[in-house]
Each structure stands twice: as structure tokens, then as C-alpha cells.
Design goal:
Helix content of chain B: over 70%
Distance between the termini of chain A: 30 Å
Number of domains of chain B: 1
Strand order of the largest sheet of chain A: 6-7-8-3-9-10
Radius of gyration of chain A: 18 Å
Number of strands of chain B: 0
Distance between the termini of chain B: 53 Å
Radius of gyration of chain B: 21 Å
CATH class of chain B: Mainly Alpha
Oligomer: heterodimer
CATH architecture of chain B: Orthogonal Bundle
Bound molecules: adenosine-5'-triphosphate, magnesium ion
CATH topology of chain B: MetI-like fold
Order of helices and strands of chain B: HHHHHHHHHH
Number of helices of chain A: 9
Shape of chain A: globular
Number of helices of chain B: 10
Chain lengths: 257, 229
């Protein structure tokens, strides 16, 4: 750590996410190499790095969709529990938005958003629906509530996925390349929703190569390579004056197109 | 034609086919329940359950139905005296035979149902379960609300095939004295051997009447309920 810039917005309490010396292997491949990273409440962290550097694995480890070999991960001061009810309830606190949306294909948009609140949070269907409609309005797809995911455009599906995550009132939302499966003309409608969320104080970890988003919404950029956090800084400082060769090399590649 | 008329007059054909329908219906319900449990065991994170599921499917699928029916009826019901009907009931013999027949059919077809559902589960992308877990659903809730509903829709066609096979396989239960269609056929052949072809035609028609709509229904269902991705 020890980045000069890119410090979290000041706020009390434990960090929303605290990773300490996290290691993870896939066979002989060291995918997460001694990762230590804190994310404060309200902070928006953009994670960048070449393909295969472990960005997705990092997100999945924070939501414990992947187990880790050593180190510790705590959400709001609570270490991630083993499998079981405790893990499920902790997961409910951590939203996740996937590259491929992963909306429940057999449920309508509205049912996608109400499932968690009803089954996990114990809301009545009426309350859950009222809240879902409100969230769908917020992301601009309320008029699609009765449709099935396959009837929506990618951009609409991803906004529904964001509403589904928001419906759980999460402490943090993880976004793993939320716009990279989208047609170019739909990227902005999703990024706009995310920028708004960031402005409203949601804590977010966003894997994305959208530098516009990083500049506009991120408090900090974390650059990963080969499973390590190589550099972190404010977006402005990182993009204009990267300090490591890996980062310079990476930026020269994504800036050329 | 005369032959058919004679058969229909002298035998209670409808009652026999009604028995076939009942065996099919109860057998199907049982097979669906047991098969679902076995399929869930096979995809569960618990090693013992996975092995039990695999073992059940392999064992049952490779055993002839005749043997399972004989085991249930002769082995368990008659020899071990495990009864599924009250012994003082006037219809004890019929009820007990029928119920053990249903058990045998359910257990045997459960293996095929389990395989159909497991193949259905395999059609559900891993991201669906991950999304379910990420909103805080546990293993059981993820299966119940997200994976299984999609798996069943993906498994409609093979489940339909299993139901049609089950309908025809009810004839095996005749071997232990349940008075269904094949049992009736044996009686007819014994007492009216001259009407052999009429008997065959009657029975074949009866089964076609039962299974053809099933095939149509399941094709329609699988188009109707298929999950669009
Ligand atoms: N389930 C898995 N089994 C084996 N190897 C895996 C698995 N998942 C990921 N990997 C490997 O781990 C490394 C890191 O993967 P990860 O998906 O975290 O990278 P990433 O930074 O998200 O890459 P991308 O930008 O391509 O999405 C890659 O080399 C990948 O091939
Ligand atoms: Mg990735």
C-alpha cells in the first residue's frame, strides 16, 4: 500500500472490505499474490490490469464465490465465514454485477429484483415489489418490469442486474467488467447508472477499462498484474503519471484504441 | 370387428386400462419425487450424497424392471411380509400388490428421472447459481428458486420420454398379479385364443391412446416452457 494519493474518503468505522495478505492458486498458477487492500465506506475503487491478472478472481474471492488459500477477507470488520447460513447472509451484504448479467432467465425483471428481498430479507412480496419498481425506475427500466431477461437489450439487462443488487441494500457492490459484454452504444447507459450510484455514496469495486468512468467516479485506481497489486493512485495521477513500467506499458496499450 | 365386440362385452377393458393409468400416475409421481431427490444428491456439495446418487442410478438403471418388481412383490411384500395396506382390509391383496407395484415402478424410473434432471441442471449456466448465491440464497434456496425450475424446463423432453416408457412398463407389474392391461391380455389370450389378433389390436390401441397425447403434450410443454436465454 502506501499510495500517496488515492486515499479513501474520510469516514469512521472499519473498512467495508479489508483484504490482508490474500493468496490464491489455481494449480500452479498464483492468481492472487499477497493482496492487501482496504476499501473505505463510500469509496469507489477501479481495478485495472491485463487479462489474466486476477481481477475477476479478486471480486469472486470477496464474495467468496472462490475460496482463498491464505490470508483474510473481512466485510465491515466481519471475516468471511465458511460455507453455510452465515456465509449466505454475508453475501447478501455484498452485491455483485457480472459481465454476462446473469439475470434469472426463468423470472421476469420484477421477479429478478424481488427474489432476494423476499427469500433472504423476508420482505412481503408487496413491499418487495414496491421497492423493486422504485429501483427499476432509478435505473430507467421500470417499463420493462413484466418482461423476461431474454426480451431485453444487454444494456437494459445490466441495469436490471444493478437494480437486483441494490434491492439487497448491500454495503458494497462488486462490478466485474459490467460493460464489456455490451454493444458500444449501450455502454454509457450502464456507466451513467454507476456514476450516479457512486455519487450517492455507494461503496464500489469496479473492474473496468473504461477510463472515462474511472476519471469521473473513482476515488482510487488499483492496477493489478500477475496477481499482485502493482500500483495504486488517484485516477488523475495514475493515468497521467503512472510510476511503474507495467502500468505504463498497460496504459500505452489501452490508450492506443 | 366381431372379435373386438366380443372382447369388449366379455371383459372389463376399461377397468384394466384404468388400473394402468393409476399405476402410471402414482408411479410417475413417485419417480419424480425420488428422482429429484437423487438428482439433487448428485449435485450436492456433500461427497456421501453424491456417491449415493451415482450408486443408485447405476444400480437401478442396470437392473431389469422385472427383477425389481419381483423383489418388491415376492421378496419384500410376500416373504418379508412388509405390507403397504391394512391386512384386515377386504381389498388387502389387491391394494398391497398395487402399492408395491407402484413402488417398483417409481424406484426404477426414478433413476431415469434423476438422469434427465441432472442433464437439465447441466443446461443451466453456472452464472445463474452464482448470481443466486451472490444475493444471499443458500444451497437449497438456490436449487429451489433458480436452478431446478430451469433444469425441469430443460428436462421436459427426456422426462416425457420417461413417462411414456413408464406407461408401457406398467405391463411388467402384471407378472405379480396386478390386474392392469397386460394382465387382462393374458386372460383374454387364455380364454379366447382364436381372437388373438383382435386382442393385440385392442391392447395396442389402448396404449397408443394413452401415450400419443403424452408425447404431444410434452413436445408442446417443452416449446412453451423452454427457457429463453
Ligand atoms: N476456475 C479456474 N480454474 C483454473 N484457472 C482459472 C480459473 N479461473 C481463472 N483462472 C485463471 O486465473 C487467472 C486469473 O483469472 P481472472 O479471471 O481472475 O483474470 P482477469 O484479470 O479477470 O482477466 P480478464 O481481464 O481476462 O477477465 C487466469 O490466468 C485464468 O486463466
Ligand atoms: Mg475477468
Amino acid at each position: 500500500m502506501g499510495a500517496p494519493g488515492g486515499q479513501a474518503p474520510a469516514s469512521g468505522g472499519p473498512p467495508v472490505v479489508a483484504l490482508s495478505r490474500v493468496n490464491k492458486h489455481f494449480g500452479t498458477l498464483h492468481v492472487l499474490n499477497d493482496i492487501t487492500l482496504d476499501v473505505a465506506r463510500g469509496e469507489v475503487v477501479v481495478v485495472l490490469g491485463p487479462s489474466g491478472s486476477g481481477k475477476s478472481t479478486l471480486c469472486r474471492a470477496i464474495n467468496r464465490l472462490e475460496t482463498i488459500d491464505s490470508g483474510s477477507i473481512a466485510i465491515d470488520g466481519v471475516p468471511l465465514p465458511e460455507e453455510g447460513a452465515a456465509l449466505a447472509s454475508l453475501r447478501a451484504e455484498v452485491g455483485m454485477v457480472f459481465q454476462s448479467f446473469n439475470l434469472f432467465a426463468h423470472k421476469t425483471v420484477l421477479q429478478n429484483v424481488t427474489l432476494g428481498p423476499v427469500k433472504v430479507r423476508g420482505l412481503t412480496p408487496t413491499d418487495a415489489q414496491a421497492r423493486a419498481v422504485e429501483l427499476l425506475e432509478r435505473v430507467g427500466v421500470a417499463d420493462q418490469a413484466a418482461k423476461y431477461p431474454a426480451q431485453l437489450s444487454g444494456g437494459q439487462q445490466q441495469r436490471v442486474a444493478i437494480a437486483r443488487a441494490l434491492a439487497m441494500d448491500p454495503k458494497l457492490i462488486l462490478f466485474d467488467e459490467p460493460t464489456s459484454a455490451l454493444d458500444p452504444e449501450m455502454v454509457n447507459e450502464v456507466l451513467d447508472v454507476m456514476v450516479t450510484l457512486a455519487a450517492q455514496g455507494m461503496t464500489m469495486i469496479v473492474v473496468t477499462h473504461e477510463m472515462g468512468f474511472a476519471r469521473k467516479a473513482a476515488d482510487r485506481v488499483v492496477f493489478m498484474a500477475d496477481g499482485q497489486v502493482v500500483e495504486q493512485n488517484t485516477p488523475e495521477a495514475f493515468f497521467t503519471a503512472p510510476r511503474t513500467d507495467r502500468a505504463k506499458d498497460f496504459l500505452s496499450k489501452i490508450l492506443t484504441h | 370387428m366381431d372379435g373386438l365386440a366380443t372382447l369388449l362385452r366379455e371383459y372389463d377393458v376399461l377397468a384394466a386400462f384404468w388400473m394402468t393409468v393409476q399405476l402410471t400416475a402414482w408411479g410417475a409421481v413417485g419417480a419424480l419425487v425420488v428422482g429429484t431427490v437423487v438428482a439433487v444428491a448428485r449435485v450436492s456439495p456433500v461427497g456421501v450424497l453424491q456417491r449415493f446418487g451415482a450408486w443408485f442410478v447405476t444400480l437401478v438403471r442396470n437392473t431389469p424392471l422385472t427383477l425389481i418388481v419381483a423383489l418388491c412383490s415376492l421378496g419384500i411384500a410376500n416373504t418379508l411380509k412388509v405390507q403397504l395396506a391394512p391386512a384386515d382390509s377386504p381389498t388387502f391383496i389387491v391394494d398391497n400388490g398395487f402399492r408395491w407395484g407402484v413402488v417398483a415402478l417409481a424406484v426404477y424410473h426414478a433413476a431415469f428421472v434423476a438422469e434427465a434432471i441432472r442433464s437439465g441442471i447441466n443446461t443451466v449456466p453456472a452464472g445463474q447459481a452464482e448470481a443466486a448465491r451472490s444475493i444471499g440464497l443458500g444451497f437449497a434456496a438456490t436449487l429451489r428458486h433458480v436452478v431446478l425450475p430451469q433444469a425441469f424446463r430443460g428436462a421436459i423432453a427426456p422426462l416425457g420420454n420417461t413417462l411414456i416408457a413408464l406407461t408401457k412398463n406398467t405391463t411388467v407389474v402384471a407378472t405379480v398379479g396386478v390386474a392392469e392391461a397386460a394382465y387382462l391380455m393374458r386372460n383374454m389370450i387364455e380364454f379366447n385364443p382364436s381372437l388373438l389378433y383382435a386382442i393385440f389390436a385392442l391392447l395396442a390401441t389402448g396404449f397408443v391412446v394413452l401415450t400419443l397425447p403424452m408425447g404431444l403434450l410434452f413436445t408442446w410443454l417443452s416449446n412453451r416452457l423452454g427457457v429463453h436465454r
